[in-house]
Specification:
The complex is a heterotetramer, with 2 copies of chain A (about 325 residues) and 2 copies of chain B (about 325 residues).
Chain A: H1 8-33, H2 48-57, E1 63-67, H3 71-76, H4 81-88, E2 112-116, H5 122-136, E3 142-147, H6 154-165, E4 170-176, E5 207-210, H7 214-229, E6 235-240, H8 258-265, H9 269-279, H10 284-306, H11 313-316
Helix pairs in contact in A: 1-2, 1-9, 1-10, 2-7, 4-10, 5-6
Chain B: E1 2-5, H1 6-20, E2 24-28, H2 44-52, E3 53-55, H3 60-71, E4 76-83, H4 91-98, H5 101-104, E5 114-119, H6 134-138, E6 144-146, H7 151-163, E7 168-173, E8 180-183, E9 196-199, E10 204-208, H8 212-225, E11 230-234, E12 237-239, H9 243-253, E13 256-263, H10 268-279, E14 289-293, H11 302-308, H12 312-324
Parallel strand pairs in B: 2-3, 2-4, 4-5, 5-7, 6-7, 10-11, 10-13, 13-14
Antiparallel strand pairs in B: 1-8, 6-12, 9-11
Helix pairs in contact in B: 1-7, 3-4, 8-12, 9-10
The chains are: A alpha/beta (about 325), B alpha/beta (about 325).
Bound molecules: thiamine diphosphate (2 copies) and magnesium ion (2 copies).
Chain lengths: ~325, ~325, ~325, ~325
């Protein structure tokens, strides 16, 4: 399938997906300010096109591996908002009953095989899921998202080589939003394109995509996933984007030049796509209906999440082991 | 005198040493203009410049390798590992290289370096950003391990760590970063391997470190109201370990309780328990009890995290149950 | 019955499980046609082929990440980390990922995997290839830790580890690889978390594991000649820990000695000492004594290594001094 | 200096250096068979040109970082044979009094800043020494040797990027001898030239040299070292070579095809250089005099090493800490 083969309905789906991620995260931020969300959280505002485009290109049983900045990737795979929001709020109706928290969203049922908070760790793990799919002949593909700053840690290197030599069905996606936490990645990286300029070190093609253009993302994702599914091995894709907010909830992001922020706000993927869809025949009414429906969905999820219970001592000692318990001695 | 937070004390301790000695350099992620993710290095970049206070890539092995190579060639680097959980991605450099190389080379090399790291829970960061890893570090021959509990100690122990010719793991309790105290002006230099008796009692001895010190002190006040009068020892440095102070204070009361944030199995208190069980066997009036986080990964939800880490009320409860039982 | 070396027992245990279950795969460096650096996988490549017994690059993080990802998606991988010292280069995957992910996901995932590794000293390999890291692994909530001491146990505990739904660190004492014993034919499956009383005595209880088991038994014979009759408990699995057997055997004799190859501070015996000091306080007739490698990196020279690791004569000496003192 | 600028005397020096390494290691192997050398040891037979060529291009105060396969690099820097041999034999007159052993040869006095036995670890450490030299303005350069198999571990990647961004005076030298332990590196590596094909991932030039040609090694070494010393940053050099023996003392190396071994024995750097020197005007007498002198040197070192004492308990507990002791408690 190529970009042109996406019909308007499918594109409205991509629009809706992005709006869901956007509105959800704005709500999460509000709830954070209202002290409903404790701990930390990392928003993908401005990066939604990547999550939406990839999720649309994935098969239902494909695997997603995300980072601590994982709300968008989790939701894009169809995980209900309530479970995600309740997890952020530390409630028993959270995806993991509050035990994982914002940085570790997981929903095996939806193929979301975890969000990982140690930089680089999930790249080798995604290789493992891909290796398993290959051995089982299941045709599943693992898609592994990570940031630009992650390209300088050792695990990145080991995973890319490993995937390449075993021709694993895994797609590595570098969301290059230009920044680590408070340091500009280009200042501490030896090459201009932290992922794409390294693809050749693993015998891979160098692929860069406009990460704010959901159609372009979908196209490149589809191609890489099809390739992986066909047994032709891994790909690495560098998607150029920008995080509109700070690194994490505590960070106002002041270290970034105003012009840079302005430039990227002008490239916001959602208004851009909104305009494109109008040009391609969608109506303002269709699109605002989507916005409204999503708003209602977010409101409902908020209510449901807030209604969740606070976890108790029973959960604390549960599920260290597969027998459901935590006993390490008799 | 100045009112100083724990996090400000870190920068002050480091600045004191960097002014004194040009061979002291800092490296780490976001420690420069940003002043560190926990704001422990605020002002250092401005005072000492980007060469001496230098941002690195997310490459913890490179950070610690660089520190080690610099230390063996005459510098005194201070490296930051942002969260102590991340020691796991560079543990080889710590345990196999830094800790062993002096011994292996029969003393040809010294490694005067400090590795600072945010340690412990209480911030609802979940299992991979909340660990107390003092017991990981204590386990490794060749590492010194410092865990301060207040701003004054931070300055003096940081100075001692920087001046020490051996590698020091300096663990900063994240839960204490915002705590404040009055600190005298002028140079402050403390001593590694010296425990402090921070409360004197007669019924039992609580031995603890870091973020568990204020909790143990609060618990001791509540216990005093019940007629259980506790000595509280702030160990401050696990290696070198001031065993003499611990043995003296335990033998004075006849009872030992450890209060540990690390998960239970092979928490640092197990070593102290084993020392006391061997060396004070005939002086103990009752069992040694270790009050610890259970042997589980830390949960993220505030309600759960609060149940996991020893709280004032749990310390009170466990001590009073054991003393009355 | 067949005469089997410890190293042959490893391959036999694995082969038994691979025949039974297609989801059991092996990965590691040089484990394929070469049969493993310690020859622990000889014959497996020939029997099961290069897809199920697969050589990897020198990429320990990738090896264990692959094992983890495969385990969470339905396979039962066995990964080899050639020397247990190398856990330090992939410790993050072990402690932060494999050990914690079941808990963090509230039980959504299970990790039925085994990580085998050559452990311990005695081969004059020096500080970076001789460590006993059972205490590193024991410290981490979420890991099971198995340390067999003979070929029969290797087979049965390997089978138990492979069948176990949780991650198991399986530590093979390098010093035992060449030891032999008679092993029955047919399927052998043992149980994790069950200690074995390998000698019954009345004077004192020695608690030990791995390569220290034969040494402790030899020491017990010498001590018996001096009139000190020791029980010897082979713990076999540190997690889960068969505390009941240990407590029973210690309370029967009133005395506990641990014999540990790991360096002293926070060696596994510290945990057992702390359990006994708390739970058997009123039953002990004398101090708990830990006989360990000193808290130093291991030296390479044969003469030095032999002085470092507990020897039969040192075990005899320390126990007899304490029993007579 | 270029290759042509090396006069015959200098070349005779390179010849001698290679012969020293060769004869030393042959003796070490014999002593191993006679059970004088315990534990393991890793020979560089066939790889001597790399050690000799680099050492000749280094300044006296430059730093060498080697691996467990480090006899050659240690000796090439001028470390006395007796100390190395005695270390292998675990004697008090060993470089480290027997505490380090064959895999950890170190002589700070000669700039040999250690041999490292964990794959990849010393690359970041070499960066640290280079960083220190840069900060101190000492003009020293760190040269870091490693194998082909080492290019797939995480520390390799972190070190290369780190050195590049800080323009550190460090030269990375991959001794590509085709094999890891018992596995052919090309089977588990995504690119043909494990180091050179990855140089561009760090903004570095791809450099390959015939590692069995000591003149060529010297030339490329000189250039990279000069460049580093001039503040122009790191280089990575891939030197093609072959280990003639097994991986370590226990390994007969049977997994290698006979033709491959034969092919590389025919490319042995020492006879090759011997022939070249004769062609360039050296006499057979000069060369055999060198062979003889080295043989005498090795004999003497053997005697001295054998005369060394067995270390005692005093050494066991010495030098964990800088105060000379090992006390961790009072
Ligand atoms: C091993 C490790 N080192 C450092 C961190 C702290 N940290 C968390 S996010 C982050 C920045 C990551 O940047 P990037 O990969 O670009 O991802 P982004 O946050 O921009 O999505 C850092 C340094 C970590 N979590 N793990
Ligand atoms: C982290 C780590 N993994 C594995 C090993 C075991 N090991 C020692 S040498 C070696 C092969 C190294 O190959 P290469 O880098 O090509 O160097 P060579 O031995 O050929 O010189 C391996 C796997 C180790 N020492 N460290
Ligand atoms: Mg980024
Ligand atoms: Mg090689």
């Amino acid at each position: 399938m190529t970009i042109s083969s996406l019909d308007l309905d499918a594109k409205l789906g991509l629009y809706r997906s992005q709006v869901e991620l956007r509105q959800f995260e704005k709500r999460a931020y509000d709830l954070f300010l209202e002290n409903y969300v404790k701990g930390t959280s990392h928003l993908s505002l401005g990066q939604e096109a990547i999550a939406a485009g990839f999720a649309a290109a994935m098969r239902e049983d494909d695997y997603t591996f995300a980072t601590y900045r994982g709300h968008a990737h989790t939701l894009a795979r169809g995980v209900p908002m309530t479970g995600v929001l309740a997890e952020l709020m530390g409630r028993t109706n959270g995806l993991m009953a509050g035990k994982g928290g914002s940085m570790h969203l997981t929903s095996v049922e939806h193929g979301v095989m975890g969000s990982y908070a140690i930089i680089g760790a999930h790249l080798p793990i995604a290789c493992g899921a891909a290796w398993s799919a290959q051995y089982r002949g299941s045709g599943q593909v693992a898609v592994c998202f990570f940031g630009d700053g992650t390209t300088n840690i050792g695990a990145f290197h080991e995973a890319l080589n490993f995937a390449a030599i075993w021709k694993l069905p895994v797609v590595f996606v570098c969301e290059n939003n230009l920044w680590m936490e408070y340091t500009r990645t280009s200042e501490i990286t030896a090459v201009e394109h932290p992922a794409a300029d390294r693809a050749s070190a693993y015998g891979l093609e160098s692929i860069i995509v406009d990460g704010n253009d959901v159609d372009a993302v979908f196209e490149v994702a589809k191609k890489a996933i099809d390739r992986a599914r066909a047994g032709e091995g891994p790909s690495m894709i560098e998607a150029k984007t920008y995080r509109q907010a700070g690194h994490s909830r505590a960070d106002p992001g002041k270290y970034r030049p105003d012009e840079e922020v302005a430039e990227w706000l002008a490239k916001d993927p959602i208004p851009m796509y909104h305009a494109r869809l109008l040009a391609e025949g969608a109506t303002e009414a269709q699109l605002s209906e989507i916005d409204r429906a999503v708003a209602a969905m977010v409101d409902l999820a908020t209510e449901e999440a807030k209604a969740g219970e606070t976890p108790g001592a029973d959960l604390l000692m549960k599920d260290v082991w597969a027998d459901g318990g935590s006993a390490w001695r008799n | 005198m100045a009112q100083l937070t724990f996090r400000e004390a870190i920068a002050r301790g480091i600045a004191q040493e960097m002014r004194r000695d040009e061979s002291v350099l800092m490296i780490g992620e976001d420690i420069g203009a940003a002043g560190g993710v926990f704001k422990g290095t605020v002002g250092l970049f401005e005072e000492f410049g980007g060469i001496r206070v230098r941002d690195t890539p997310i490459s913890e092995q490179a950070i610690l390798g660089a520190a080690m190579g610099a230390a063996m060639t005459g510098l005194r680097p201070i490296a930051e590992i942002m969260f102590s959980d991340f020691f796991a991605v560079c543990w080889d450099i710590v345990v196999n290289e830094i800790a062993k190389s002096r011994y292996m080379t029969n003393g040809q090399m010294t490694f005067p370096l400090v590795i600072r790291s945010g340690n412990g829970g209480g911030l609802r960061f979940g299992a991979q950003h909340s660990q107390s890893v003092e017991n990981w570090a204590m386990q490794v021959p060749g590492l010194k391990v410092v865990v301060p509990s207040n701003a004054l100690d931070v300055i003096g122990l940081m100075a001692a760590a920087v001046r020490d010719p051996d590698p020091v793991i300096f663990l900063e309790a994240k839960a204490l970063y915002a705590t404040k105290m009055e600190v005298p002006d002028g140079e402050i230099v403390d001593t590694l391997g010296s425990a402090k008796v921070v409360r004197k009692g007669s019924s039992a001895t609580i031995v603890t470190i870091g973020a568990m010190v204020p909790r143990s002190l609060a618990a001791a006040e509540e216990l005093a109201a019940q007629g259980i009068d506790c000595t509280v020892v702030d160990v401050r440095s696990l290696i070198p370990l001031d065993t003499q102070t611990i043995l003296r204070e335990v033998s004075a009361t006849g009872r030992l309780f450890t209060v540990e944030e690390n998960p239970r199995v092979l928490g640092w208190g197990a070593e102290i328990s084993s020392i006391v069980a061997e060396e004070l066997f005939y002086d103990l009036d009752g069992p040694i009890v270790r009050i610890t986080t259970p042997h589980i990964p830390l949960p993220a939800a505030d309600a759960l995290e609060d149940m996991a880490i020893p709280s004032v009320s749990r310390i009170v409860e466990e001590i009073s149950r054991s003393m009355n039982g």
